[in-house]
Amino acid sequence: MIRLIYSALFYLLLPVIIVRLLFRAIKASAYAHRWVERFGFVAATKVTKEIIWLHAVSVGETLAAVPLVKALQAKYPDYRLIVTCMTPTGSERISAAFGDSVDHCYAPYDMPDSVARFLNRVKPKILIIMETELWPNTIAACHKRNIPVLLANGRLSEKSATAYRRIAPLVRPMLAGLTSVAAQHRDDGARFTDLGLAKSALTVTGNIKFDLSLDQGIKEKAQQLSLDWRGSGERPILLAASTHRGEDEIILEAFRKIKDQINNSLLVLVPRHPERFNQVAGLCDAAGFSVAKRSAKDSVDSADILLGDTMGELMCFFGACDIAFVGGSLVPNGGHNMIEPAAWGVPVLSGPHLFNFSEASQLLLNGGAMQICHSADQMAEQVVELLQNQAQRDEMGSAAQRIAEANRGALDRLLSLIDKTI
Fold first, then answer.
1. 259 lies in which domain range?
2. How far is CA 387 from CA 157, 224, 384, 391, in A?
């Protein structure tokens, strides 16, 4: 009954959802495209291979899924993967990362007819969901069709768990429909079981984001970027990655104070969402900084700030900087992936809001690889101290790299679990 009410509400809210898509399309035109896929109108599967359906809601989950997808392709060559997401930026990352080696479309909205239409056309052998993207009707439809559903790299913050408890009658049967949950940490697992997941369905595998690989091509590109940005003067580089609305102003204020002490420093500023690129460029101009744009291949020789207004290059940027601030953390968004700069051996700065990466952030903090800043003044102070102290910077970077290496192995544990499920 509760799922019936949920479905009815979803249908009633459909006009609002469509208006929201139209509104978002004003800022990002890609939101106006491929709407039919969101209602399950995808091409019927023509290949004779069995289908593995992997769902990664947006950019972060897609990046986390890269090593998993490649491992699945190697381990199950007789299967074909279809990778779905919900956002245009996620779609771009899927296409860039996998090309035509996988099928790709948007996931259907969680309405019974849309989900049924999608399943009838795709006929997946298994559904693997990345991290936390749980939908009651999708899981129920798979359960009814005996399609195993595995939550990979599962995480559940206390904030999200509190929200789920308010709708426990809907959440408990949804969790009961999961075949298996591969949780990042025992705390995540405890929250899942507290909400109704059977303990027998839980395995703590660790965070597969630690299993990223830095291939030679990425290393060479990062090295070239570093040379291009530093120039003959060996400019120090601060990277502010995946910033959100409300953070850029704080970072720009901090950078002004940094420039007062280290005048030749360069800020590489990368907003999280492409629709904010122009807005952030305007903020930089209004603050009186000279700005180069990565998309225009502008020279940074006379620029204070390089705006990272491209997609798919952030991993290389981490390898080209001296210090990395990871965004989504000065505002209550929960933080983004600080494991990436750690893998490069780069000192990490973050704001205090880290509930999306509670375990990884605690490992880095306890290991002396990361510092928390609460304000522009504190950020400026930390950056200046690190830029002026090579030994401290090297110590933090080495600690970050050791922690990243020591926590690898989650991918193998996850693959073993999938092997038992498929």
1. 216-406
2. 34, 21, 5, 10
